[in-house]
Every structure is written in structure tokens, then in C-alpha cells.
Amino acid sequence: MKRQGILGLLVIMAIAIIAGCSSSGSNDGKLVIGIDDKFAPMGFRDDNNEIVGFDIDYAKAAAEKMGKEVTFLPIDWSAKESELNSGRIDMIWNGYTITDERKEKVLFTKPYLENSQVVVVLADSALSTLKDLAGKEVGLQSLSSAADALDANPIKAELKGVSEFTDNVLALTDLKSGRLDGVVIDEVVARYYISKEPETYKLMDESLAPEQYGIGIKKGNEDLLTELQKALDALSSDGTAAEISTKWFGENKVLN
Q1: Which contiguous run of DSSP H or E holds residue 169?
Q2: Which of 44, 111, 132, 247 lies at a CB distance of 3.0 to 4.6 Å from 127, suitable for a disulfide?
Q3: Rg of the Cα trace of the chain?
């Protein structure tokens, strides 16, 4: 084969490899969704190690509307935007809070669920207000909206210290063992764990900040965003979203 022909073949092969390695979610009939698999009840592993949760069921229903296959990929939540922008995942979908800072990095769907950042303490704790945390040690998930909410509150300067964890389960474990006085955490997650162990945990009377969940998509992929939002709107219209919400929360909490 002539040199020019070899070079041409190599160029074609390189293009094919690059195309094959890129995340084409909206084009190849498959969606890879990045999740935190310890974020109950939104997305977590059950007793059989199966990934379940509200967001899991919601994403499966949306993918069905879109005519796509869906795969859930547990990721390092502190690197979620990097995972999305690298093309390793097509969406961030697991209790992903909409913030102005994140809007600079990703595209968001319309909000689909209300949430707030709260503080969980031990059931027998005398702590009830944010001021009571002065001089105390609190924990939270690193690079989460819990950290943002705490940073924005004056009580942060009065704390003894803040310990960061890779997931909420580890933070709650340290609270249970007495190494922490409180854990800043998403309300939906807090209520799930309190329902499992009401004799162990409770919520403080005050919350830190209200927020909303959305689904994150790589900037520049407006077509996928439009397709997904259309599917979500259809799930609200036909009652599927309400059914999924009732299954996990006992009521319809999905925003329309």
C-alpha cells in the first residue's frame, strides 16, 4: 500500500476511535447516568446490592419515554462535573442540587424536587437551633450543596470544626459513634435515615437553606436536554412521576 494510502487509513481509524470513545448518549440509544450509590432514598444499594431509589426509577421511566437503554454508573461525587465533561457519563442524576456555580459548568433541566439542607443530631441531643452548634464539630459530604449551605451561614465561623466525608453514610456513622455533634445533609436523605433509626437520629428545628434538584447535562448538548425535559414533562402528565414519588415518599413531591 502506498504511503498516502496508509496515512489516510490511519486518519480514518483515529477518527473512528475518537468517535467510539466519546459519550454519544443522545445518538446511540444508550444513556450512562452518574450517581452516588449511597444517597438514599434517591439512589442507593439495597440489601441485595441492587441500585434502587426514587431517582433510579424516575430515570428508568424517562429513558423508556426516550426509547433509550440506561446504565447507572457510581462515581466519585466530588468529581461529578469532571466525569460529565469528560464524556464518561451523559447525565448527573441523583439528588443533584441546582446552584449558580453549577449552572456555569452544566446544563440543567427544570427543577423536579424541592429539598433543603438540614442538620441531623442524635435523638437524645439537646441541640435544637443553629446557634447551638457554636463550638461543636459537624460533618458533611465533601463538595456537596451541604458544604455550600454551611459556608453561607454565619454559624460556620463559630464551629469548632468541620469534617468532610466521601458520602453521607460515613458522616452519620461518625455522628452515631459520638465523634460528631451534627451532620449537615439533604432533608430527603435525613428523613430516610431517621425513618430507619428514629431512636438514633432526629432533625434540628432550624434548616440551613432551601434548594431544588435538577438533572445535569454537558454544556453544548442542548438536544439531549430538550429530549430529556420532554420525557420528564410526559411523566408528569401521565401520572407516572406521581406514582414513583408516592412509592418512595408516600406522596407526590414532583414539581410540575
Answers
A1: helix 168-177
A2: 132
A3: 21
